[in-house]
Amino acid sequence: MSFPSDLDIARAVTPRPIIDIARELGIHDDELELYGPTKAKVTLAAIERLEAERPRGKYVVVTAITPTPLGEGKSTTTVGLGQGLNHIGKRAAVCIRQPSLGPVFGIKGGAAGGGYSQVIPMEDFNLHLTGDVHAIGAAHNLAGAFIDNSLHHKNPHGIDPHGILWPRVMDISDRALRHVVIGLGGREDGIPRETEFVITVGSEVMAVLALATDLFDLRARLGRIVLATRQDGTPLTADDFRVAGAMTVLLRDAIKPNLLQTLEGGPAFVHAGPFANIAHGNNSIIADRVALATNDIVLTEAGFGADMGAEKFFDIKCRASGLKPDAGVVVATVRALKMHGGVGKIVAGKPLDPALLTENVEAVRAGAANLAKQVENVRMFGIPVVVAINSFPTDTQGEVEAIREVALAAGARDAVVATHFTDGGRGAAALAEAVWAATEDPSRDFRLLYPDEAPLGEKIHTIVTKVYGGDGMEFSPKAKKQLKQYEDLGYGHLPVCMAKTQYSLSHDAALKGRPSGFTVPIREIRLSAGAGFITPICGDMRTMPGLPSKPGGENIDIDAEGNVVGLF
Q1: What is the DSSP track for 380-426?
Q2: How far is CA 347 from CA 295, 344, 513, in A?
Q3: 332: closest CA among 378, 382, 291?
Q4: Residue 564 — very low, low, confident or very high, per pLDDT cuts 50/70/90?
Q5: Average pLDDT rounded to a whole number, residues 226-232
Q6: Tens of pLDDT along 157-176?
Q7: How far apart are CA 93 and CA 62, in angstroms?
Q8: Could you tell me the strand order of the sheet in which 159-164 lies?
Q9: Is residue 205 left, alpha or beta, with left meaning phi > 0 and alpha meaning psi from -120 to 50?
Q10: Distance between CA atoms of 344 and 340, rounded to whole angstroms?
Q11: What is d(CA 402, CA 398) in angstroms, rounded to the nearest whole number?
Q12: Calpha distance 388→380 (Å, rounded)
């Protein structure tokens, strides 16, 4: 008998009324904005009340080894671990990002978890949910329209046409829009110029929403966004264009976190969705805050490997929120570590290479060098680490023991096999016990990787050498000029949000395992003054993905009853 699809599993569960889950959390009915019976937004007033009344729960970040194109079940493990903690009697919530439609219809599919560890309703979660991403796109593109409108009306702001920093966005992977010319057609159709599109989740507006602490902080951050420069190089902000207020109005509902549930009826907060390879890759501070005020323990997911989303969680998100994590979980799989050990090849959309399904303890041990580095990366911030071994039926005891040995030698507090995909919360009960114990480790002493006052170049060097394990970086002439410009303009205190491939600790996706001896090329540096960071672009990193030869959207349709099919 074949294992049921994620969609079939999700549909077989009757969701609890979301208002009942909210009441269990202590959220009042008038603090909940319902979007049907199974999803709702929580008001910001509720968060302020709850934080004043309740102690903060334990705070755990879930990250991973360097992933393969298939992903290693980080969202599934986050949800399964949350169910596992509830299974052992702890009040637990998960905080995860809302998926981008680009990957959903492209190569990755959905991001609600998998098997018997999912967030439901699965279709709503993976598609439009409550419309937050659309609101972000509208706010972003409104600012773009104001820029071009100002150029059309005799340029009263003195915009340098070559100093426009603001692209357009859309939430579909479309490589044809990476480089475009706009304003063609005549005098009434705008000023012709080159620009680009980035995917909406890579928008600075998305990053701002995820890092804002309340509506007024959101308004202030939007106002600080630098949209363009004048001829003398001085910045023109969204406040200068008088568009930040309208952008805020478009985001008044989007700033409220969304409350959903796991398959086992536990709370799941879904809010914001920045990519970790081109943005900071974490859900919102606001969602984490309401979860921490209503639960004993909260699992917040950081995108991709610990060198990506987790580093940014610590150095950007925690720096902004002031919250200190109590522990970290690093997710690993046997098949991914085999690939990092030089065996087999993983291609999304194609059957797994048979070499990845055959026992090979030495390949696992060799590839586990990547796991060791990612454990070290989390330990670098002073918190205890538990490795979650996301189990597959083809794993062998010898391969699992190899992972445990490497993990413990690298400084992990524990390494535990979890079968949450097939068994739900009870399959993550042992992992839950280990993670709860880690949060009570008296040796934890959270610290940031670098101080605010360090020069931008020093911050970049610290990340490249300490987190990635590289020898250093090489700046293009353009990047050198931008680095000096931003420091001269007073942005040198900002943290760094590296944009690089997620498929390697280095900038080169072909370098698997734990590479060394590499130098990271910095092509350009972008300023996100509203979000509060600068973004070095490494190598040929793209900010607008493209669709694969056979996009996942080809399989998505409706059946004779109007139900969604083909979503995974």
Answers
A1: TTT--EEEEEE--TT--HHHHHHHHHHHHHTT-SEEEEE-HHHHGGG
A2: 39, 10, 17
A3: 378
A4: confident
A5: 94
A6: 999 999 999 999 999 999 99
A7: 13
A8: 159-164, 226-230, 235-237
A9: alpha
A10: 9
A11: 6
A12: 19
**Other CB atoms within 10 Å distance of the CB of residue 151:** 19
| Closest of 247, 251, 297, 310 to residue 433, by C-alpha | 297
Q: How many CB atoms lie within 10 A of CB 477?
A: 7
For 327-345, how does the pLDDT look when each residue is reduced to its tens digit (9 = 90+)? Answer: 999 999 999 999 999 998 8
User: In 3-state terms, what secondary structure has residue 265?
Assistant: coil
Q: SS3 for 195-231, per residue?
A: ECEEEHHHCHHHHHHHHCCCHHHHHHHHHHCEEEEEC
- What percent of the chain has a predicted confidence (pLDDT) above 70? 99
pLDDT of residue 259: 98
CA dist., res. 268 & res. 328, Å (int): 19
Measure the CA–CA gap between 141 and 517, rounded to whole angstroms.
Answer: 42
The domains of the chain, with CATH numbers, are: 6-131+254-438 (3.40.50.300), 133-236 (3.30.1510.10), 456-538 (3.10.410.10)
Gap between the terminal Cα atoms of the chain: 19
pTM of this prediction?
Answer: 0.94
pLDDT at 561: 86
Q: For the purposes of burial, counting CB atoms within 10 Å of the CB of 520, is it exposed (0-12), middle (13-18) or buried (19 or more)?
A: buried
What backbone phi and psi angles, to 5 degrees, belong to 186? 135, 180
The CA R_g of the chain, rounded to the nearest whole Å, is: 23
Kind plus residue range of the DSSP H or E element containing 281: none
User: CA-CA distance, 182 to 77, in Å (whole number)?
Assistant: 44
User: Tens digit of pLDDT for each residue in 30-42?
Assistant: 999 999 999 999 9
